[in-house]
Amino acid sequence: MRWFLLIFLLLGLSISAQNTVSWEEGMDSPIANLKQVEWMTGHWKGEAFGGITEEIWSPPLGGSMMFSFKLVVEGSINFYELGHIKEVDGTLLFQLKHFDGDLGGWEEKDETVDFKLVKIEDDKVYFDDFTLERVSDQEVNLYVVIGNEDGTQEEVQFNYKRQ
Known about the structure:
Helices cover 9% and strands 52% of the residues. By secondary structure, it is mainly β. It contains 1 helix and 10 strands. It has a 10-stranded antiparallel β-barrel with strand order 1-2-3-4-5-6-7-8-9-10. It has one domain: Lipocalin (Beta Barrel), CATH 2.40.128. Residues 1-16 have low confidence and may be disordered. It holds the Pfam family DUF6265. Keywords: Signal.
């Protein structure tokens, strides 16, 4: 009986911690525009991966919202991300590229990491394994599924406060 209860509790915790949704073959992205994610505009700071994280999001312009991400660990740049959310065919696409501290690119020159829009709510935008959540005008959460070295995947939360 104890094992059953323990498994039930662990399963319940893992389900309640799930804040991302995966894109499945055959899905269509919902109709959406940048006005629905404009609340991300601003300068945000938080902590993750043993360091300080910073994101800066521009307001919509030219059909996209541009962002930069920086992770600083022990006073040194660990990596950057540059990207955007852009309007494509009546919906939204989230794209980014990674760079090391010296701006050496991780992806090939013409490649991006793309996240298709799965669903959108007033305060949550669900891209494929990447969710943006407005907690308040001064706080947001980002959730992303990342791969571990052992081949497993986990959902990581980034909590940011407006600067």
